[in-house]
Design a protein that fits this description.
The chain contains 17 helices and 19 strands. The protein is of the alpha+beta class. β1 (23-24) and β2 form a beta hairpin. It is globular, with a radius of gyration of 27 Å. The structure holds glycine and manganese (II) ion (MN) (2 copies). One manganese (II) ion (MN) binds next to loops.
């Protein structure tokens, strides 16, 4: 600080000697008044940091293609795809922001409050504009007098910078409600659930009566479903991102094995924390809440408390995925004997689940129905359960009645991408009742879960839960297991653990 920039010491204390209505932001509670002198001084002495040498992000050519495809499906219509907003966690703290998947898919951007608009162009096609919050104004003081100011939250890209990075026209998002109100009449759709303010603007514009609202809801739903359909097939850049997510996840699983003694001394939380470290260092976050389920907790499908003990002789079911900085997630499960070797009964359950997974993966190929790998894996589980005397055959009867589900609990997999359960609202004829196509990425994840209080199974099985989950790309020839670097068979798992478990 040089002397010229220094405020007058006598007037620089908060509010001292002035009644000027100038305030510093506090999210919850009374604002704190500042002096006019400080406010004036804060306007000056800032360097120009505009970046003028920016190149588009890697995915820019891909997002452009996706926008073109979307526009072609809805010619002449205005399409509004918001990023969403920060959500309050408690009082004045917020959850980390994660932009809505469709917005990320179409822009590559992750700014809170952002919004993509595909504006129908006069000569056909669409003009794509992304609306963003620009750099904070220094002149009017918003950069430090507003709770969203950059002084508190960090520098944002300027609109010009964001435009270069994303390969898109950019406008100030604060102008968007007015822009929508003043835009030429055109049928308009919005992806709902992310921006109540914009939804309200459109509700008024599109007609405020019940009939208009019903029609608008249907039309908006079609847009969301179409985007889910489009996201079913991953392009080469997305496949690369998913492979990165899986590779980081594989490293995270190795970290966990090395940390098992610490987990035994503490709890499942040590496992969750160890994996999270890898996710934060190499990616954005975990793609979903880690399931670190030791011993009988493995029989609770959505175990996320992760506060149980980790005991030698038991197995750890770890279901975890790193989400890349671009928001693509892996979804991998391994069930590992904590002390390095499966007991006989653990081995038996593990090998049956493994056989089911092998049978399932063999069914993942272009042209095969999506259901085929589930049905094949369930058949193998049902046959094994009949052989063990837990279910009464024949197998067709068991499968028809779904009796194996008492122990297998869930479906054998789902699409994977920006969401862990990706494309969930895609049309059933494209997904659940459709055929597999090259570029789809899905999980194959059979499991067996014998509840600790299940009197229908022998005591030795009670409290055992096993799931093996891998991420599989459908290729032109068949499939590629993206998570093949993690061992799957019981023999390979034991050998892998022997190499990694710290000597005791
Ligand atoms: N981790 C969630 C799932 O496997 O579907
Ligand atoms: Mn899964
Ligand atoms: Mn999973």
């Amino acid at each position: 600080m040089n002397d010229q920039q220094r405020p007058n010491a006598e007037t620089a204390q908060d509010g001292a000697g002035t009644d000027a209505p100038v305030f510093t932001p506090r999210k919850n509670g009374p604002y704190r008044r500042v002096s006019e002198e400080l406010a004036a001084w804060m306007r000056t002495g800032w360097a120009d940091t505009e970046r003028r040498d920016l190149r588009p992000v890697e995915q820019a050519p891909y997002t452009a293609k996706r926008r073109a495809a979307l526009g072609a499906r809805f010619p002449g219509e205005r399409l509004v795809v918001p990023a969403g907003h920060l959500k309050t966690r408690s009082n004045d703290t917020e959850y980390p922001f994660r932009a809505a998947c469709d917005y990320v898919y179409l822009t590559g951007d992750q700014s809170d409050g952002g919004c993509l608009v595909l504006e129908p162009a006069a000569g056909g096609g669409h003009e794509a504009i992304v609306y963003l919050l620009p750099r904070s104004d220094r002149e009017n003081g918003e950069f430090w007098l507003d709770g969203r100011g950059e002084l508190w939250n960090g520098r944002r890209d300027s609109l010009a910078e964001a435009g270069h990075l994303l390969g898109l026209a950019t406008h100030d998002v604060r102008a968007l409600p007015t822009a929508l109100k003043e835009a030429p009449a055109a049928p308009t759709r919005i992806v709902r659930g992310h921006d109540p303010v914009l939804e309200e603007v459109l509700r008024v514009l599109r007609g405020d009566d019940e009939e208009a609202e019903k029609l608008a809801a249907e039309r908006d739903g079609e847009l969301a479903v179409h985007l889910a359909d489009a996201r079913l097939i991953k392009d080469e850049w997305e496949i690369g991102q998913l492979q990165q997510a899986v590779d980081s996840t594989v490293r995270g699983f190795a970290d966990v094995v090395a940390a098992l003694p610490k987990a035994e001394a503490t709890s499942e939380r040590y496992i969750e924390g160890t994996f999270f470290l890898r996710a934060r260092v190499e990616g954005n976050d975990v793609g979903y809440g880690t399931i670190a389920a030791s011993g009988p907790n493995a029989t609770t499908l959505h175990w996320q408390r992760n506060d149980g003990p980790v005991r030698a002789g038991e197995m750890l079911l770890l279901d975890a995925g790193v989400e890349t900085t671009t928001l693509y997630t892996a979804d991998v499960t391994r069930t590992l004997p904590i002390s390095g070797r499966f007991t006989d009964v653990q081995h038996r359950v593990y090998d049956l689940v493994f056989a089911a997974q092998e049978a399932g993966i063999a069914e993942v190929a272009p042209g095969r129905p999506f259901r085929a790998y589930h049905e094949e894996a369930q058949r193998v589980l049902a046959e094994g359960l009949i052989e063990w005397g837990l279910l009464e055959g024949p197998v067709e009867r068991v499968l028809d009645l779904g009796l194996q589900r008492r122990y297998s609990l869930h479906g054998t997999g789902h699409m994977l991408g920006l969401d862990v359960h990706d494309c969930a609202i895609a049309r059933t004829e494209c997904y659940v009742h459709g055929d597999l196509e090259p570029g789809m990425v899905l999980t194959v994840e059979p499991g067996l879960y014998f509840q600790p209080d299940d009197l229908t199974v022998p005591e030795e099985l009670r409290g055992i839960g096993v799931r093996i989950e891998d991420d599989v790309l459908v290729t032109a020839e068949g499939n590629q297991v993206l998570s093949a670097a993690l061992p799957r068979s019981s023999e390979d798992v034991e050998a892998w653990l022997a190499e990694r478990l710290p000597a005791v």
